[in-house]
Amino acid sequence: MALPQRLHPPGPESPALHARAMDNLSFIRQTMERATAFTAVPGWGGVGMGILALGAAAVAHTRITPHEWLFAWLGSAVAALTLGGWTMASKARRAGTVVFSYSGRRFVLSYVPPLLVGALLTGVLVRAGLYQALPGTWLLLYGTGVVTGGAFSVRVVPLMGLCFMALGAVALFGPAAWGNPLMAAGFGGLHIVFGLLIARRYGG
Question: Which H/E stretch holds residue 153?
């Protein structure tokens, strides 16, 4: 009759095995992050940005000088970007993530450069007195940022960017009098429409 063999308790996990397991977990987590779209684009924040833009359009419509018109829109842009950044961080926090996750970094790094180019071109165009070129330039470059950043986000975001670019093309080649209404339609109307869509489908 064979005697049962004595089982030895498992020994302590070796440091090499532990390190390998941690590497595997890290690889799995990074792969999942890269496969995940950036969903913290704020829908309600977009609605708020649109309302600010409609207010700016109304104020800018009453301004007499180009400088007053410019300051009305620049003030609105600063307030809207601040609101957008704050609501994006809040939405990411509610989802248990951060804005600067892997997908979030790709979104931000694709979204910001066209805005910086827009800021530089604003200075050049204002110095040259070409105020009528500002609406088309702003709409086109903002739309470009939304399209490139939206490539790493939900599908509706790049579509919104394309709509901005279409309005920008019309503003750039249309009569100067169309500039303010087209910016109201873009920065106001598109932000509100797509903001409501994002809020409804993608959790706020």
Answer: none
